[in-house]
Write a structure and sequence with these properties.
CATH topology of one domain: hpI Integrase, Chain A
Largest sheet: 3 strands, antiparallel
Number of helices: 25
Number of strands: 13
Structural class: mainly alpha
CATH superfamily of one domain: Intergrase catalytic core
Oligomer: single chain
Helix content: 40-55%
Strand order of the largest sheet: 7-8-11
Distance between the termini: 87 Å
Strand content: 5-15%
CATH architecture of one domain: Orthogonal Bundle
Length: 574
């Protein structure tokens, strides 16, 4: 190393080395480069200790500058598919084909320059040596020596070179000569040959004379016009296309998966997922947790030994959270009164058991026994799986009004003893999305003038010539639809208003912890809030008139609720 070239070995102490690495920390050198410098120098000094030239390795006491260790690594530059197409069309042959092969194979430039015709197979390229700075050598690592699969377009593009000719300057005074791109295509001959001599090409010359000038003229960032960025683009495009990280590692021939997928890559994936602004913070947090879990499992199984690349990523900006809704007993009663069967029974199950949408689809008649519904499975689209969590598997008591509805539904279904509880015409589990659009939303969206659904009202306006036309105006007496999950939240909120303890509500909703129940499934109703503030006012003033709303104490729990709010809504349930 030039810095220590003339320094006696005995003067190479920890203080001298610490000053050197501190100076690197203040410069523009990246963290990976600093760590590699330390690794190489440490190996040299360890050899000096082994041969008794030093008593100990002074580099062991040196600390890398914190800014080079803690700061997030910069995102590796890569080109977009659009920029790739522009480059391939703009650059002359054979350099255009070199760009094409580099991106669609992930070859290092030394492997690309050293590629021979015997390495080109029908659907793969074999890498067993490389040409770097005038020297032939083995591949970078033992894992790098492998055959990698490529598309037929890559093989066709390479073989196309055999029939191409180019015109180059030859001699003085503007003389030109037309020559073949491939002088000889024997097994040991190079695929990419120097136009004048047929020798291996200089990757640096190609970069300076063709790749970077083309990028500048196309308005691209020159940092993207490097051989490394072309290789990075291969891995980036595979990840963005949804490829398995292990498959990407195999294509890039990295010895560790942490080299393939670092924190920047995971952060870019999370940012891309969060860009549309459709997901909330909880959903993005779950996605990050899932990715982190995959890498943790891969580490446990010995697929890589680096740091989990998802650990230091940040949750991208999420969709602003909206206030969630919980159906009151009054709203539940109104909805049930306007729905036809089987929509009414399906909604009643959601409102009076708190079952999730997928769990309702997964219900079978054999799950309903002894006045209980057993939650044993969940169906999402066409995927049948276990319930959401271990706690989600359990029994839910069935109240009498719901039991009556289920028996009525059973009778209409042919008195089934087994099979899907809510089937479609084909006997498969009913799609609740179709049920919503076909039955529930039309029933809750009726015209206040004619009492018909929106679709029927608009159709009648076009066809009816006797009655005067009128614009569709939704009947606001009907409750609005707030989603299936509002029924689950409604059960938790209604039970709480009736004085049921939080732990009992947690058990009914089958949550893993009571904080989830309290935070997301118990909503304060306006009447409860006003009653609570009225109580506070009476306490502070000391004046409690006899005609005030009487508050009752439920000694089973600590919830105090207004008598009016705690009255049983039998009409709503029925």
């Amino acid at each position: 190393m030039p810095t220590f070239g003339e320094l006696p070995l005995r003067e190479l102490n920890a203080l001298t080395l610490q000053k050197y690495f501190s100076s690197l920390g203040a410069g523009q050198i990246g963290s990976e480069t600093v760590l590699k410098i330390k690794e190489v120098l440490s190996a040299v000094l360890a050899s000096a200790v082994r041969y008794d030239l030093l008593t100990k390795n002074p580099l062991l006491a040196v600390q890398i500058p914190r800014s080079k260790v803690v700061n997030r690594r910069k995102q590796k530059p890569h080109i977009t598919p659009e920029e790739f197409q522009q480059l391939v069309q703009f650059v002359d042959e054979p350099y255009s084909t070199m760009i094409f092969v580099a991106v669609f194979s992930g070859l290092r430039v030394s492997e690309l320059v050293g590629l021979k015709w015997e390495d080109v197979r029908e659907d793969s390229l074999t890498v067993d040596e490389r040409y770097c700075r005038g020297d032939w050598s083995v591949t970078k690592t033992t894992i790098s020596a492998a055959s990698i699969g490529v598309g037929s377009s890559v093989i066709a593009r390479i073989r196309r070179l055999k029939g191409l000719e180019v015109e180059i300057n030859w001699g003085g005074r503007g003389a030109r000569k037309r020559i073949k791109l491939v002088r000889s295509d024997g097994p040991k001959d190079l695929v990419f040959q120097s136009l004048r001599t047929g020798a291996p090409m200089s990757d640096g010359n190609i970069l300076r004379r063709h790749l970077r000038p083309a990028a500048i003229r196309l308005g691209m960032d020159p940092k993207k016009a490097t051989w490394r960025s072309l290789r990075t683009s291969c891995a980036t495009w595979m990840v963005e296309a949804g490829a398995n990280p292990k498959d990407v590692q195999g294509q890039m021939r990295h010895s560790r998966i942490s080299t393939t997928m670092d924190t920047c890559d995971i952060q870019r994936i999370l940012d891309d997922i969060g860009k549309p602004g459709l997901l909330g913070s909880n959903s993005l947090r779950h996605i990050k947790s899932q990715i982190s879990g995959i890498f943790s499992y891969a580490k446990q199984q010995g697929y890589f030994d680096g740091e989990n690349p998802a650990r230091n990523t940040a949750i991208p900006p999420a969709r602003p959270s909206e206030e969630t809704h919980a159906y009151s007993l009054e709203e539940i009663g109104q909805i049930l009164s306007v729905l036809s069967e089987p929509a009414a029974t399906v909604f009643a199950v959601a409102a009076f058991t708190g079952a999730r949408r997928g769990e309702i689809r997964g219900l079978r008649w054999e799950d309903y026994q002894d006045e209980e519904i057993q939650i044993r499975r969940s169906i999402w689209k066409s995927h049948v799986s276990e319930p959401k969590t271990r706690k989600s598997r359990g029994a839910i008591p069935v109240i009498a009004p719901l039991a009556q509805r289920l028996e009525f539904h059973r009778a209409n279904s042919g008195n089934c003893k087994s099979g899907v509880m809510f089937p479609n015409v084909n006997g498969s589990p009913m799609d609740l999305g179709n049920l919503l659009n076909r039955d529930i939303l039309p029933a809750l969206s009726r015209c206040v003038v004619c009492g018909k659904t929106k679709e029927e009202c608009l159709k009648r306006m076009k066809m009816d010539t006797v009655e005067p036309n009128h614009n569709f105006v939704r009947d606001k007496i009907l409750p609005e639809w707030h989603g299936w999950h509002a029924a689950r939240r409604g059960l938790g909120t209604n039970l709480y208003r009736l004085g049921v303890p939080e732990k009992t509500i947690q058990a009914i909703l089958r949550h893993a912890n009571v904080s989830t129940t309290n935070t997301h499934y118990i909503k304060s109703a306006a009447d409860d809030t006003r009653a609570a503030m009225a109580k506070l006012e009476r306490l502070l003033t000391g004046n409690e008139p006899k005609y005030a709303v009487v508050l009752t104490k439920n000694f089973v729990s600590d919830n105090e609720v207004a008598t009016d709010a705690a009255d049983s809504k039998s009409a709503a349930i029925q």
